[in-house]
Design goal:
Elements: H1 2-9, E1 31-36, H2 41-56, E2 65-71, H3 77-88, H4 96-106, E3 109-113, H5 119-135, E4 144-149, H6 156-166, E5 176-181, H7 189-200, E6 208-210, H8 218-221, H9 223-228, E7 242-250, H10 259-263, H11 266-284, H12 293-306, E8 315-320, E9 338-344, E10 354-360, E11 367-374, E12 391-397, E13 401-409, E14 417-425, H13 426-429, H14 438-448, H15 457-475, E15 482-484, H16 492-501
Parallel strand pairs: 1-2, 1-4, 2-3, 4-5, 5-6, 7-10, 8-15
Antiparallel strand pairs: 7-11, 8-9, 9-10, 11-12, 12-13, 13-14
Pathway: Carbohydrate degradation; pentose phosphate pathway; D-ribulose 5-phosphate from D-glucose 6-phosphate (oxidative stage): step 1/3
InterPro entries: G6P_DH (IPR001282), G6P_DH_AS (IPR019796), G6P_DH_C (IPR022675), G6P_DH_NAD-bd (IPR022674), NAD(P)-bd_dom_sf (IPR036291)
Domain Glucose-6-phosphate dehydrogenase NAD-binding: 34-222
């Protein structure tokens, strides 16, 4: 147990005593990235493309880095390379340089076949990693090992045990071993705590990176800057000025062949308990005393611990018509594909402000956004209340943007008011700038040892404490989802809940992303 902790604590230490006797041989801190579950969908669609983009941008120097794929499939190095090749660039639009970069990147990948509970498999993996480290002229123990678990959580404990006993750095010479684990982190508070305890017995918290890709999105990462680097937001961001906050996730497609998997979790476990709750933390948290990861995460935990128990009459569940037609979904499934709920934060800043969380599949649009609605203007001399309230909207995806809805005079001779916007659309303002994928950013953070955008154990526990009672009532059939038509806004009761919570919909105004 001690060695893993000391390795991590000394991850940034460099010492002249590491130098080899032959001063002409450059010493390199090699980096081995091991993708477990390398033959699966997540690895080929997200993990490997993210690594490729980091490689192209110079963050994974080929003289330092080697990438290992580990899975049960009996395939060769070239088989794995061919499986992921098509996900790295679009061949129809790829330039000769793109294709050359793909070839160079794929040469860094080696495949190891083995079971996830096999000592022999992980010993073979360790042997391959060690050979890479020697080939890179890396001093034993000073190398870096990053294990990315692109696997279902059920195998996390056995995989972590195998890594801990077979694949750690051998000495305390400044290297590190880190593991990245994907959601879902359990199904409820008890299962999440059991999983955390099992992994916590093997690795210390600074070695564990619980990834939530929403925390890697550009506009989510902008939240702290927006809130705490702009003077005009500081006095407005409270219960005195804000009437309600919406955090919305909408998809215009259903489960698309993943019905059996989705049915085990439902929309609350899949989207709300993790992605949207993390966004809520950034919207509602107090200013941290610094940008150190622990200070930021301390403030997020305080928000979660201030959330009151969810009331049944402030929850609307839905299930789209046709969901149960999927042969992998039980005919009697009670799993919600849609949920709208009101969370209330019991503290000085947010007392009385409803945070409306909304997520659903098979709806009439695809978007994720934060919508902060301000209170009515007192003493409205222009009689423009019917046109709608001021809103600050942060569009997370697609068409990343942030805009403020405000009332202005309509151009012309008459004194008529109309709603318009102050608009920062990223595609227009930052034309030609490629916004990195969330996984790129988060993998780079892991290599750098920055845990700011990862979920800490007490944060995970606090999140599950909010939703576990509600989830158990749904699982036990005490709460039923309402049917809704695919391509609709969801159940009508959800809009009624929004209105009851105090949200005032703007009529006659639609935000249109500006064109170049």
């Amino acid at each position: 147990m001690g060695s893993g902790w000391h390795i991590e604590k000394r991850a940034t230490i460099r010492s002249e005593s590491f130098a080899r006797e032959d001063e002409n041989v450059p010493e390199i801190e090699s980096l081995a990235i091991i993708v477990l579950g390398a033959s699966g969908d997540l690895a080929k669609k997200k993990t490997f493309p993210a690594l490729f983009n980091l490689f192209r941008q110079g963050f994974l120097p080929p003289n330092e880095v080697h990438i290992f794929g580990y899975a049960r499939s009996k395939i060769s190095d070239d088989d794995l390379r061919n499986r992921i090749r098509g996900y790295l660039v679009h061949e129809k639009t790829a330039t000769p340089k793109d294709l050359a970069d793909v070839t160079k990147f794929l040469q860094l990948i080696k495949y190891v076949c083995g079971a996830y509970d096999s000592t022999e498999g992980f010993q073979l993996l360790d042997k391959e990693i060690s050979e890479h480290e020697v080939a890179k002229n890396s001093t034993e123990g000073s190398s870096r090992r990053l294990f990315y678990l692109a696997l279902p959580p059920s195998v996390y404990p056995s995989v972590c045990r195998m890594i801990r006993h077979n694949c750690m750095n051998k000495t305390d010479l400044g290297g590190w071993t880190r593991i990245v684990v994907e959601k879902p982190f359990g199904r409820d508070l008890q299962s999440a705590e059991e999983l955390s305890a099992q992994i916590g017995e093997l690795f210390e918290e600074p070695q564990i990176y619980r990834i939530d890709h929403y925390l890697g999105k550009e506009l989510v990462q902008n939240m702290l800057v927006l809130r705490f680097a702009n003077r005009f937001f500081l006095p407005l961001w409270n219960r005195d000025n804000i009437d309600n906050v919406q955090i919305v996730f909408r998809e215009d497609f259903g489960t698309d062949g993943r019905g059996g998997y989705f049915d085990q979790y439902g929309i609350i476990r899949d989207i709300i308990q993790n992605h949207l709750l993390q966004v809520l933390c950034l919207v509602a948290m107090e200013k941290p005393i610094s940008l150190k990861p622990e200070h930021i995460r301390d403030e997020k935990v305080k928000v979660l611990q201030s959330v009151l128990p969810v009331k049944d009459d402030e929850v609307v569940l839905g299930q789209y018509d046709g969901y149960r037609d999927d042969p992998t979904v039980p005919d009697t499934s009670n799993t919600p594909t849609f949920a709208t709920m009101v969370l209330r934060i019991h503290n000085e800043r947010w007392e009385g402000v409803p945070f409306i969380i909304k997520a659903g599949k098979a709806l009439n649009s695809r978007k994720a956004e934060i919508r902060v609605q301000f209170k009515d203007v007192p003493g409205d001399i222009f009689k423009c209340k019917r046109q709608g309230r001021n809103e600050f909207v942060i569009r997370l995806q697609p068409s990343e943007a942030m805009y403020m809805k405000l009332t202005v005079k309509q151009p012309g001779l008459e004194m008529h008011t109309v709603q318009s916007e102050l608009d920062l659309s990223y595609g227009q303002r930052y034309h030609g700038v490629t916004i990195p994928e969330a996984y790129e950013r988060l993998i780079l953070d892991t290599i750098r040892g920055d845990q700011q955008h990862f979920v800490r154990r007490d944060e995970l526990k606090a999140a599950w404490e909010i939703f576990t009672p509600l989830l158990h009532r749904i699982d036990d059939g005490e709460m039923k989802p309402l049917p809704y038509k695919p391509g609709s806004r969801g159940p009508a009761a959800a809009d009624e809940l929004l209105e009851k919570a105090g949200y005032v919909q703007t009529h006659g105004y639609i935000w249109i992303p500006p064109t170049l």
